[in-house]
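Following up on my earlier thread - several people asked me to post the actual chain instead of describing it. Fair enough. Here it is, all 228 residues.
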Amino acid sequence: MKPVCIIPARGGSKRIPRKNIIPFHGRPMIGWSICAALETEIFARIIVSTDDEEIAEIALREGAEVPFLRPTSLSDDLTPTVPVIAHAIQALSITEDVAVCCLYATAPFAVTEDIRAGYSLLDGKGYVVSVTSYPFPIQRALRKSSAGQIEMLHPHHMTTRSQDLEEMWHDAGQFYWAFASTWSEGRPIFGAGTKGLELPRFRVQDIDSWEDWKRAEVLFSAIKNPGG
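Reply from S.P.:
Thanks for posting it. Predicted structure:
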């Protein structure tokens, strides 16, 4: 059976209010995720899970389905991703052997090739997660002390050469793939069997603050108009 895409998009974003539908380079932010999902041409359905009527209306205009409104109990700041996707799977009666892609609503850098590549890596009970590398060795991270002074988090790496430190990765915040059974069972995303699809750093930007938003706009412009 063809896979299903589920885009979680609650209405109560705090740090950037209404960020799922704020215009970003000419279209509502969520529109870029819906467009990327549509262009893959692999999904049987593209569903937006939201608790918000305005987000639902915009998602419909952008080409997604909104067959239900998510309950408020699954729409607060503390609700993790897995229960939201599991709820959608149950509401849609998706069978356990169907592949389900959770694509975030604020992922304008997600591209069809990466989404398809994630699908191709999927097997077993694990997830496939979009990841990217840290631009600087995290083993040499700094922190502020209670007195406001800077100190190394791992002082024993003070003189370790960068090339001798293990490369580290982090969640790119774009999409997760898993079979419906994996989501429904509530398995942790970063548990046994999870695979990482490596994305280049220039196509990854978390959008949790206005500074993030501005940086995303600059990156997006550079990618879409490299000679501009």
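The domain at 4-133+167-224 is CATH 3.90.550.10 (Spore Coat Polysaccharide Biosynthesis Protein SpsA; Chain A). That should answer part of your original question.
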